[in-house]
Amino acid sequence: MMPMRNDPAGDKGVVRWARNLAAAGLLIFLLAGLGTTLRDVLQHRLDVFPEPVTWSSFLTGRTTANVARAMASAPVPVAAARLQRGISWELLADLGPHVRTGCPGWLFIADELRVHPQRAKDLSARADVLARVHEALRARGIALLVVTVPDKSRIEASRLCGLARPTALDDRLRQWNELLLEHGIAHLDFQATLRDAQQRSGQPMFLRTDTHWNEAAAEAAAQTTAAAVRAQGVRPVPEQHWQVYRQAEQLGDLIRLAGLDRWQAKRPLQADHVQASHFKPVDADEAAPDDQELFGDADAPNIALIGTSFSNTSNFGRFLEQHLQVRLGRFAKDGGDFDGAAKAYFASDAFRQNPPRLLIWEVPERVLQLPDAHDHLSKLLKND
User: What is the dihedral of CA 184, 187, 191, 195, to 10 degrees?
Assistant: First the structure.
């Protein structure tokens, strides 16, 4: 039997062919990315320079950061990222850096489980910011009520299964409550409200595949807030009654955050399907006017609500209007974190022309210890 011999020339040919194929594939990918990006830029569907390019913005890196964010939103990078996320989920059950899996069908945002190194300092800094804003508002005759939404992983701890919530986060709400009490700031922590509602109903208070609370929780929190508003002695105006009807909706922001909202997954990953409430003013033929239009009007609301997507998702703001039988100025901002909505509101004509008698500020627990807490708000109020 003749021994088998290696064929060095043949091996080199295979390697050369594989290298050429990989190079050709990479070139095609790069050309496709360049072509589709240029097309979207020329058709004004992709804004590479969302803000004016100045020498200062160039030196500080804002210009290049804007370009990088725009390029990441181009068609080919988006499609490649979606493909990578889908393969990771199918093969490894991995949802990426922003989403964690709990019990079957339950998803949690990773931000709730992150322990920040300077958490005590930043928590205290945010309480100090609120204290200075509180003083600035009080000087204008405006009362402040802070309402804090506890983490989904705190309220739905029984749905975590093998997902661990760090014990370092256990005292976060208690410390926050104590700091606000020390500063004399009126404050509601919805933890007890949600636990009581959960115990009475035997149902979850948060959506399975969404980071937000469900309508049962949002309405319970609105009832608690309405009682606190009445205790403040502020008579809400203008009076408004509401009709409520329900319509099927699909919610699942954590599926979108994981990059799987357009992926036909073989692994079951079903978004929440709910009967969401929709509100219509009684004796009104048309939809409610825009909140920006209400301010500057003689019948402008004297209560304003700022905050995050928790004020919009599951109708917390609308339920509050219903329980107060009033129209609110609703200025919450999706993705606003701690003070995004406050910055926009304090700089708006709505605030300047018709400041409210009471400002309700909704804050999610998970943003309380984010790094780099800075006070721009009290300066904005002083400069107004």
Answer: 120
Q: Each residue of 305-343: pLDDT tens digit?
A: 999 999 999 999 999 999 999 999 999 999 999 999 999
Give the containing element (helix H, strand E) for 49: none
Q: What is the per-residue pLDDT across 75-130, written as a single tens digit (0 to 9) for each? A: 555 554 555 454 555 554 556 788 999 999 999 999 999 999 999 999 999 999 99
User: CA-CA distance, 141 to 148, in Å (whole number)?
Assistant: 23
CB atoms within 10 A of CB 164: 9
Range from 45-59, 197-211, 243-257, 285-299 carrying the lowest mean pLDDT:
285-299
- Neighbour-count burial for 338-377, b at 16+ CB within 10 Å, e otherwise: bbbbbbebbbeebbeebbbbbbbbbbbbbbbbbeebebeb
Q: Are 313 and 333 in contact (CB under 8 A)?
A: no
AA letter at 280: K
Q: Is 205 helix (H, G, I), strand (E, B) or coil?
A: coil
Distance between first and last Cα of the chain? 95
Distance separating alpha carbons of residues 26 and 53, to the nearest angstrom: 32
Amino acid type, 147: V
| Whether the bond into 3 is cis, omega within 30 of 0 | no
Size of the chain, expressed as the number of residues it contains: 384
Contacts for 131 with CB less than 8 Å, ≥ 6 apart: 183, 185
Report the distance separating Cα 75 and Cα 194, nearest Å: 42
The amino acid at 357: R
The answer to whether 187 and 146 are in contact (CB under 8 A) is: yes
